[in-house]
Amino acid sequence: MIRKALILLTLTLCMGTAAFSQPMSSGYVGMSPWAHLIGKQFIDVTQPDMKGKNHKLSEYCGKGKYVLVDFWASWCGPCMREMPNVKACWEKYRKKGFTVVGISLDRNAAAWKDAVSKGGYAWTHLSDLKHFENSAAQAYNVQYIPWNMLVDPKGKIVAIELTGANLENTLKKYLAPKAAAAKKKTVRK
User: Fold this and answer.
1) Structure confidence at residue 17 as a pLDDT band (50, 70, 90)
2) What is the pLDDT of residues 29-69, one digit of tens each?
3) Residue-wise over 138-162: b if at least 16 C-beta within 10 A, else e?
4) What is the mean pLDDT of residues 164-180?
5) How far apart are CA 176 and CA 174, in angstroms?
6) How far is 139 from 66, CA to CA, in rounded Å?
7) Is 103 exposed, middle or buried (0-12, 13-18, 19+ CB in 10 A)?
8) For residue 185, what pLDDT is reported?
9) Average pLDDT of the chain, as a whole number
10) Residues 6+ apart with CB under 8 A from 135
11) pTM value?
12) What is the C-alpha separation between 145 and 143, in angstroms, rounded?
């Protein structure tokens, strides 16, 4: 009896984990507490950059590019393991209408800046250095990191929780049609 209960519990947990590991997009209905964000306009927040200058998310989102808003921290092992993937996607797609805005949940400015510098993460980085009390994290109810959302060129959230191959596959899905259309225009001239 106990063995059957443990097996059932294990299967339930595995199924739940599998649901959370899938990218959330307009075509996916999952168990994520953020699924309601899909199709909604991004929430504008203000955060300082690494030099202390305040920036609004609206300076980047809704300006004609796909933007990955990536919540992370230098002390977060899973975040640091995911950063090379984010960097590879940024390098591959940045000239095709994609960029990243990193929002760090660090408390230590030196650790944050050091991680960005050592990793060569050349995209925009913002943080109020307030850990999970970060105003952007509060606005999006971020409960864990890494956590991210993909915002389309018009400012709508089209996907959330993109990691590993899911990030690149989602970028291909949204950016390939755009690249094909641009190529078609060039051929017609």
Assistant:
1) very low
2) 455 666 667 889 999 999 999 999 999 999 999 999 999 99
3) eebebeebbbbbbbbbebbbbbbbb
4) 84
5) 6
6) 20
7) buried
8) 52
9) 83
10) 45, 46, 47, 128
11) 0.78
12) 7
Where are the alpha helices (H) located in the chain, listed in sequence order? Answer: 2-21, 77-93, 109-119, 135-139, 165-188
Q: Which residues pair with 101 in a beta bridge?
A: 69, 124
Q: What's the pLDDT tens digit per position in 60-94? A: 999 999 999 999 999 999 999 999 999 999 999 99
Structure tokens at 41: 């306009």
Distance between CA atoms of residues 74 and 119, nearest Å: 10
147: tokens are: 């956590």
**Cα–Cα distance between 27 and 38 in angstroms, integer?**
9
The one-letter amino acid at 71:
F
Place of tokens 């975040």: 79
- Cβ–Cβ < 8 Å for 19, 31: yes
